[in-house]
Predict the structure.
Amino acid sequence: MNLNVIYGAIYIFSAIKWGDWKNWKAYYPTFLFLMVGDLVYQYLFYKHSMWEYVPVGSDKGWAKHTHIAFLVMLIKYPVTISIFLGNMPKSFKKKLVNILFWTFIYTLNEYVDLKLGALVHKNGWNLGWSAIFSFVMFSVLAIHYYKPLLAWILSALYATFLWNVFDISSSILK
């Protein structure tokens, strides 16, 4: 089984079916915001990760955590942004439902990965924290689309909150 090929196919099908690619330029800054956030996490937490991708099946022959993380950034994130922002409702209540829907999708995806052994949690992280993180992430992504500076500020505050909750030592930094 090549799990990453399966995930890639699901996301590419989803991109074709539901993605708003005619407006991709409008979503591009928010995609970069998401990707930069993940790259910063990957860099800062290289020696103290909260989760780690684990190759399963035929992925073991070629993939490491870094390969899978880059595939997520290059396939999953742009598709997610195109569908998430491209189908964003106007009313606050419906926006909240959209954010909750995507929180559920990402949490379910992570649950499946955990059950298949394709992901492990570390250093106190768990599925509950992932669900909260996804809710905050999608809320901030929606904000970023309209008010990028506010999204950067909120992201820094949330990262600081998580850093303190998980009592991460500054010794993990280079």
Q: What stands out?
A: The chain is about 70% helix and 5% strand. The CA atoms of residues 20 and 86 lie 5 Å apart. Strands lie at 51-53, 119-121.
